Amino acid sequence: MLRELGCDPPSLKNDIVRHIRLSLGKRPRDCSERDYYLALSYALRDRMLERMLETEDRYTTADAKRLYYLSMEFLIGRSLGNNMINLELFDACKEALTALGVDLEEVREQEVDAGLGNGGLGRLAACFIDSLASLHMPGFGYGIHYEFGLFKQIFDNGWQKEKPDHWLDEWTPLELPRPDQACYIPVYGRVEDFTDHTGRSHPMWLDWNIIVGVPYDIPIVGYAGQTVNYLRLFAARPSTEFDISIFNTGDYFRALEQKIESEKISKILYPSDTFREGKELRLLQEYFLVACSLRDIVRRYLTSHNDFSEFPSKVAIQLNDTHPALAVAELMRILVDEYALNWNKAFELTRKTLAYTNHTLLPEALETWPVDLLEHILPRHMQIIYDINAFFLLEVEKKWPGNPHRKSRMSLIQETPDRMVRMAHLAIVGSHATNGVSVLHTELLKSSVVSDFNDLWPERFSSKTNGITQRRWLLKSNPQLADLITQAVGPKWITDLERLHELEPLSNDTGFQDAFWEIKRKNKQRLCALISETAWVETIPDALFDIQAKRIHEYKRQLLFLMAIVYEYLQLIEDDICPPFAKTYVFAGKAAPGYTVAKRLIKLINTVGQTINTDPRTKGMIKLVFVPDYRVSVAEKIIPAADVSEQISTAGKEASGTGNMKFALNGALTLGTLDGANIEIQEEVGKDNIFIFGLTSSEIAEYQRTGTYNPHIVYENDDKLRRVLNALSSDRFCPHDPGLFNWLIPYLMDSNDQYFHLADFAAYIQTREQIAQAYSQTRDWTRKAILNIARIGRFSSDRTIQEYAREIWDLHPVQPRV
Amino acid sequence: MENVQGGQKGVYCVNVEFVEHNGVLVAFVLADQIDASSAGSFRDNILGKIENGYKRIVLDLTKVDFIDSSGLGAIISALKRLGEDGDLAICGVNEPVMSLFRLTRMNRIFNIFDTQEEAVAALGTKGS
Q: Fewest CB within 10 angstroms: A158, A265, A393, A769, which?
């Protein structure tokens, strides 16, 4: 069949035309770029689906163990380009479209991002499913088919405003609805004990409302196109279109109420990053994901197995953060209530099947749910959680007899001040493995947040440092650099990123350096065009591009970056200290809609930027830009252009980071703290090729423990710092809006500068001066940049997935037939 | 054979066909769903038969694609009304409906058979 479909340009051209006529009902001469985008997508989909079916046959024949990656977020971005590259059809498609008089790049611009995620957690999930397919592993993403993805960010007088992101209008060609595999998901109701003929008691879950979960499959193509897995997203539908009896009375809107109520479960992605929402709808979403996924997984397993004895050897389920932690209770409910397994056996199977990844230590992000709410929505699950807890506390008692404080700390239920279910505890107790996402994060996890569990089960904890897919983040988004690398060391780095080490000798090669530099400049030109188009600021490609692109959050310290920029601005216009080269400072990222401080920071950045960019005294030597609506497709343009990558979180707060890896892979030098994966990046690239500053996590912990950090003293003793903060909080940048930023200093002082902006400022600006000197030595800078690329191989998500597969999932590739 | 419809005006009714085989009453549900709008009348129909003295009932759900918690509640009401000396079997349950039975553990309380013949035979052998 694949040979019949053909992968040469004429075959692709014919298929594109066929889809124009038979899928769109148009003639080529009447087609817009969007029509060509659709037709091309359909033509590629034909090929992907053939391979997806073959892949499924291969897995079935091998009775392969399957991995199901449960995540509330999959930040996929655009797929057309990625699919063309992974199918190795990019050039053929380009040629096919050229033969039709159409430009591929303009066609690609028609695609909108699938923004089904907030930031790092969602993008990690997307990188992982790419790696699973590229490694020929039977791994599938399971998520929610949100109708509205992460909001679109616009700036209105410098303030962030949110617009809805109805991505589905533009995205239809790549997904396959599977209504025949819909499942019924009950919520609410009550539990009633019923005694059968034998006198045995059965807790029956009654009076629930039914939501129907309809799967949609998106093919996920591995590199070289031989393995195509899928991402299965569940959409919520009502069990009946509407209540006919109410409709018959003429009350159309009331009749639709239930339809609307049901569908809202998959309507919108909650836009909070590292902050729990605590909303009932969010809990419904989490259960909906878990229930649909487990129903699907169990159904598939039982098509080829008669009982559950082999379940853990055929099924691995990874919980991406605690959002799907209800899988513990749901799997127990299925095994015990539906299939009558005894409790102990069911729990053994559940534990062996599930594994949990922790992504944060921030207290505000650790999920808990009120017991009352869980009882109301999932009465049977709450009973199961109580039972799990009872057995678990017996285990704790056995290990530490007569230690009620330990039991209270470890219990799945927090009793005071409010009764809450601790989802991280549920996930740890109900799984066989818990991992952090960098070495530092895992150490902090084991020593602080879940130290009791580490004491009880040290063998369950491990580190799996995050990674990124080089196929999207270099091959796709920086094709010229990818070509340069391939010409130098061959193409094997595309599936084995450690091969980049072969570039090391070229770091001193002037010809290679010149080629790298030229590519970097072209990428900057592309970014300048984007900035001009979206932020209406003119920038030059010969500037140093110093970039911080990530979600806006206090712990990531966009404020610190801004403080340094203002410092350099004041030096320029008041001290006449002119930088040796032009600098462009770039911010990008979204703030959660309810996160007031983050939104104020955005306004502050934009306002300072407005001042700097229109101040003739800068002579254009510095520019400050905030690129709006940061998303995957924008990241693909920003990251390749960077010279300096800002990774300046308060040490101990960023679990890993993945932007740090993407920037380094594209030849930016990191300016960062010893936090998350920055530490491991330093170890790989070498201390001479990265710029590290600031307090370590231990030092910060010590300050916090002793209470000896006083930002007032730092403020009083540091002239440079005081000058910057006074300037920012004055009316200097907001003369037409007096007092707009006078919240800044009280904000820092009242919270005792909990993120240590003031403490790290001096070291930060000193390190930035080192960067300026280093950048002036162009050859040496380029050498360092190339060494970053050469030594970043460990941070491929291929490596991460192989570690998970070997150490947690016992998952093996099923190689395609040669 | 008795085809029962009826109930309150404006209330959707579940069409049920009753047939007696060797002392076993077979209730063949002709509607494709038993939900909140129809469960009440459905329950009343079955309970009415129990009141009339039928103690062994087979509920044939072959045509039913969907049953919500009200529908399941109606079936449980019937079982409770039959009491210790009665029996209720179910047959012709398709997979989506079966998943709901498993959810409520009804699969362990009721005897569920693939076909009407098997169900009638099973209740028939228990004596009249």
A: A769
